[in-house]
Amino acid sequence: MRGVRVLEIDSSIASGYCAKLFACAGAQVICLEPSGGAALRRTGPWIGAGERSAMWEYLAAGKRSIALEPEDERVDALLGWADVVLSSANGNADAALELHDRIAAANPAAVHTVVSGYGLTGPYRDWRRSELTDWAAGGHMFITGEPDREPLQGGGPWASYMTGATAALGTVAALFDSSRDGRGQLVDVGAMEAVAGLHQWTITMYTHLGYVKQRWGNRFGEWTHPIALYQCKDGWVSIVAPSPQAWEALCVTMELWDLLADTSLEIVGERFDRAEEIDSQINAWLADRTVADAVRVLQTSGVPASPLLDMTEVLADEQLEFRRFWTEAPWLGPAARMPARAVALAGGTTLGPAPDLGQHESEIMAELSAGVPPAPRPSLDLRDARVLELGLAWAGPLAGRFLGDLGLDVIKVEHPLSRGLPGDHSKAAGWRWGTLPHPQVRSPIYPDGQPGERWWNRSGMFNKMNRSKRGIALDAKTDTGAGILTELIRHTDLVLSNFSPRGAKSLGIDAAQVAELNPAAITIAMSGYGATGPLAGNLSYGPVLQAHSGFDEATGYDETGPVRLGVAFPDAVAGVHGAFAALTSLWEREVTGAAPHVDMSQFEALLSIGGDMLLAASVTGVSPPRHGNRSDDCWPQGVYRCLGDDRWIAVTVASDREWTGLVDVLADPVLAQVKDATRDERRDQSGLIDDCLSRWTGGREASEAARELQAVGIAAIPVLTNGDIVANEQIRARGYIASWDQPDVGVREFPGFPIHFSRRSVTMTPAPALGGQNFEVLSKVLGYPTEEIEKLMAMGVLADKPPL
């Protein structure tokens, strides 16, 4: 986004990463800092004997700095300069709105994006947040960790990063509006909704089945198996075998003939229910093998697998070296390096060092005095842009759904068999609300556990992920079907897919073939490892990438081994970044006339939200330790048991003032003895403080405890289940739980859209029935007569039900 001008005001991790994505896309970014420096300069991890913040060095790379106090009149000149203003709110929603009024007065065309914990409206608008509470409020903490222990945060502030990525997506959409009509707007993004939006089916399990998703340690809960971490003789591997092909290949490779012969294990839910039995045999096969040997044999046999690396090992990964993923940072140390970008974008740039405080003041003021005119802007209405989405599983469909929610015309192309097999519907009898359905009918998440007559249109998982799209069911492997796909490509602005490079080429949707058919069409290819490099052909799912990236190694209890996150987090990361790449590529095409191709590696996108940890590891030579629910910067911080079964509260005390407030609220004479303790002294007394906090929270409902702590300015939130999210007063007040009349289902609730615009409307439409828009798309987009479409339906080239 060359020429776009971004002003970032005293950033948080979320707003800092939002601005970084713009900088990587070619925008100019100025950090407006107070005289004491931005808060990120005081945020760990630390490098250089604790003198420099790796977080600042990573997130501020390539930006410029000016230090001014808010009352300085030059601030208004900067506001007038900016196309985008990014700010953060933490317990001070009114201050954010006052800033918005000032921005609107100085520059009516500016987009102002505010990131906060809970949004600028609703009963929690003034609640405090932290990196810990972001995980708890968004529903990810409750399902991460061991079932008999406290829930866990992720091993880094990745939820906050993803709030920033979500904000970046909304900001680009608002920029398109401003560039078209010259009117700015407020973009309001709360971490609670942004992080809740990073689930695959967690929330839908509750709205459709009433089931509260649980913690399952290193297994992938409830749905299928094996998707898990396993130990070899020299380390850990991630193995993911949900598909029939991968399960058969796993059994053949490991010679698990009894499991292969057991036809009941062809049902994915049955494999989860019998995970102990399956794992005993997998563990026996792995026990005498090295990680490298196990991964090589499994990948060769068609089983997705990866080593579990720590972040020092990630820094030496051959795939990343081949794709020149790293930016060297010799000013921080001889071995210092950090991710160069989340996605390689046309118009993007390599970022230099983070700025010193106020380093560019004279330079910036000279530019303002010179009155440099803004760069050319596109006039495209996003509602006029057409996207052809060929998405599988989660990452691709999520990117397409974001684009559809933002108003683009997304046409989903799927195979008539893409929605799976029916299973034994008789097993649905006797199901009770709040329980898991029988394995035969579990994985699609049917409403009320019932497949119904047209079961292929009733999957809660599919309908949640594919709203706001039109859909056609096309067998593109036939000559006639391939011809229709070719014609669709000629009539689209953007082709989005998350096929493997080989699969995309086979289907005719790789960059070269699309460019030949339609030189104006953008391609966004979202493969696991990217289209080049020694691992380009490796099979991957989100859990494979999560282990390979060092994220699993960084997550866990203080004294135990690695723990996987409760969802396949890399898929969500890729979906948001893929949608951002699509919008920025549309911007680039409209400005330059050239249609970019984006070779997106989901692995690299994931690593981009761990850039601070990777930078610190490169400088220190030590991978970041697991720290459970602790923080390097805030003491005390933790997750504490409350009244009720498996009920918990997440608490962060971030300052001496908050510590004093905590001591007063708890009124514990033991705690009163250390009321004057410094942060480091509190860390040394963490056991005593935790005991006091646990006694206090143990006698209270989590929501009651959170309100008492929030009343004195302490970040605290119950660790929310999926059911809690659906019922939560803040979520409801913000309209995040949405409902629509879904074909063959009726009115049902689903997770909604996590970005709020002051003047842009978001209209969510039901997910398409299988082939639901066959006639509409072929007639209105391609000009086919009705009788020709009916003929294609009769031939099976098009379908509106599976050909079973």
Describe this structure in words.
The protein is an alpha/beta fold. Helix content is 39%, strand content 15%. The chain is globular, with a radius of gyration of 26 Å. Among the domains are: 5-199 and 339-373, Crotonobetainyl-coa:carnitine coa-transferase, domain 1 (Rossmann fold), CATH 3.40.50.10540; 637-722, formyl-coa transferase, domain 3. It has 35 helices and 25 strands. α17 links the parallel β14 and β15. α1 (13-24) crosses α6, α17 (395-405) packs across α24 (569-592) and α24 packs across α25 (602-608).
Derived structural class: alpha/beta
Sheet with the most strands, sense and barrel status = 7 strands, mixed
Query: Average pLDDT value?
Result: 96
* CATH architecture name of the domain at 5-199 and 339-373: 3-Layer(aba) Sandwich
CATH superfamily of the domain at 5-199 and 339-373: Crotonobetainyl-coa:carnitine coa-transferase, domain 1
Proportion of residues in extended strands:
5-15%
Q: In what order do the strands lie side by side in the largest sheet?
A: 5-2-1-6-7-8-25
Q: How helical, in percent, are the residues?
A: 25-40%
The CATH topology assignment of the domain at 5-199 and 339-373 is Rossmann fold
Q: Output the number of helix runs.
A: 35
Would you report the number of β strands? 25
- The residue ranges in which pLDDT falls below 50 over 5 or more consecutive positions are none
Distance between the amino and carboxyl termini: 48 Å
